[in-house]
Amino acid sequence: MTEAELSKEISAVKAAEEPRGPGRRLHGAIAHxxxxxxxxxxxxxxxxxxxxxxxxxxxxxxxxxxxxxxxxLTAKGLVASRPKAGxxxxxxxxxxxxxxxxxxxxxxxxxxIEFVRSLFELRAIVEPAAARLAAQRRDKADLKAMKTxxxxxxxxxxxxxxxxxxxxxxxxxILHATRNQALxxxxxxxxxxxxxxxxxxxxxxxxxxxxxxxHTKVYDAIAAGDGEGAAEAMNVLVDxxxxxxxxxxxx
Amino acid sequence: MTEAELSKEISAVKAAEEPRGPGRRLHGAIAHxxxxxxxxxxxxxxxxxxxxxxxxxxxxxxxxxxxxxxxxLTAKGLVASRPKAGxxxxxxxxxxxxxxxxxxxxxxxxxxIEFVRSLFELRAIVEPAAARLAAQRRDKADLKAMKTxxxxxxxxxxxxxxxxxxxxxxxxxILHATRNQALxxxxxxxxxxxxxxxxxxxxxxxxxxxxxxxHTKVYDAIAAGDGEGAAEAMNVLVDxxxxxxxxxxxx
DNA sequence: CTCCCTATTTACTCCGACATATTATGGGCG
DNA sequence: CGCCCATAATATGTCGGAGTAAATAGGGAG
Lengths: 251, 251
Prior knowledge:
The structure is a homodimer.
Chain A (H helix, E strand, L loop, with lengths): L2 H13 L10 H14 L8 E2 L2 H8 L3 H13 L3 E4 L3 E4 L10 H9 L4 H25 L2 H16 L5 H17 L3 H25 L9 H9 L3 H24 L1
Chain B binds a DNA duplex through α4.
């Protein structure tokens, strides 16, 4: 990679800076590049990344920045470094595939169809169960949050950013009502990644989005304390999203 | 390297008399110390870790080693650093609670009861669904792997390390049969953490372990291709484990 | 042919300096 | 008197070099 490419990558990162998000630094950009390269298969498991000095020279960055990037990848289980042996890409089953950043890297390039299917399958397992728990444990504040999110979704459609934000709020309210931290973390990252690709694919092909799924049924079941009904209604929602993506990918 | 060795290494560093520190993965030891401190609540969300130089001096390590440790924590969503603003602990919902290392840190000290309950709940959701998928997709190699693991479990009991290894093999074989990478990663880390604490609690209180759960029913259902049966049998297993832990923790 | 020892390669750690970004402060202007 | 902008202070980010430890490879001795 040339220095021009790198600085372009950096400025691109700076442009996408979020208000509360972690401002990406140089080592962040390097980690992003190496992460996407690994996830895309450019470096296969078992490959050794040429030594520190060589790579740092090639990328025109100091060893410090390169090393800090390697620490990030190591923390996510993508690589492991040993003296003399170099830093090698670990086998896929060691990767932290549920890490939000790793998910982002996986979807940065051409996402593996099988992996996307895996995520949807996991979502289809988790989300209905979350709705069932939410129906059993929600309080008035949770219901109020869902209600306002629903109203927002009706005003805007899912084709606008405001509408999608309301959709995220709705699902986040359900997760919060489960009182389950692990479920919240998992579902939030999966949902974000899945929605991201779905949206990307749909926008790229300009597909007419299927009619707004009936989130109201989910809300009604949760409000009524009907766990089974909530799970079923949520199952329908997930299946709809799956259909959207499947039609967008297989065509 | 065991946890005891790590913390010993840390304390050796903190009380260091000689400037020439130990040579084994110093930043990893620092990350472990800071990680457990954060997970245990010693540093609350919003707290700012006193500056790089101050902390590096306090721990008697160089800025580089401290910074690389911070990169690891940043990669796991525990902290965020900004120039002039310092490094502060992020709110809990930003933490990567499903990261194996973070789970280890959470269970290193006094694990939060509510969090353990969350993990068991998630496990009760995921594992039966995994058994159902395994029943639909397993091939002969999967069944063979499960069979040998079952035989090993019968020879040794769950009180021996060999027996527990066979138990892990059995569950790993089921996960592999699902052909779902995301499920494999998730369930593997949760299972490891949960089994770890369960084992720890049981050993500490010298509780007589309940009779070996009937893994055979799960195997039979999977071999027969009976998804519902496999899910139900696995549900029984998870409930049994939950009972063991509940009785160990509430007493 | 086997085993041990040396030597090289590579990652790990430390250091001191400079660059950059953000916040705080103080002065100028309306 | 109050608001706004420029400047300074401070902590993180980046850099390159030096020295240490460890693991593999190669050569020598038995």
